[in-house]
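All the exercises in this workshop are built on plain-text protein records. Sequence and backbone structure share a record, each on its own labelled line. The structure tokens are whole numbers drawn from a learned vocabulary of backbone shapes. The record below serves as our worked example for the rest of this section.
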Amino acid sequence: MTTWVENPEGGRARGTGAVARAWAEVLVRPRRFFANGVAPGDQAPGLVFAVCVAVAFAGVRFVLDPATIPTAFGGPGVSAAVSLLFVAVFVAPASLHLVAALQTVLLILFVRDRAGISETVQVLAYASAPCALAGPPVPELRAACALYGAGLLALGIREVHDTSTVRAALATALPAALVFGVGFRGFAAAETLLTRWYVI
């Protein structure tokens, strides 16, 4: 799942600028992005993208809410640096591929004629784009980013695997809950908002 295709046909360009362009494109023109920017076997740019999003989320969260920095590595600065390295090297790649495996199984159940696993990995990676902005401890922002990410995942699966909106929504419900609800704290944000509205 981590193969880097040197000369993919129709895949993403490499480099910092390409990551920034992909982020903007998937947020603004997601249908066109998923139709043109996902290529068979070209997972590496998607993996890099997912790592960047995860690090941005965690990094901003640590800066604006220092209480969330793990304390197992010494002082706050060292703990934050080690934690971000852990997110980049282990948490983001492992989570992406584990959820992609689950998404593949669900696609087998809901979609008869499907694209490949590598395309699924890429869709999951790029659908996380809104969550680069979800680091601030603002529940409204975090919940909105999680909802947008879940919508992008369903849209991407629909476009890349050429299926219906209903089937895509059903197939992505559990992966979206794990990635955006749990991983990017969308459920916690929604719970905070519901509690606030209930108290009011």
About this structure: The mean pLDDT is 90. Residues 16-199 form one domain.
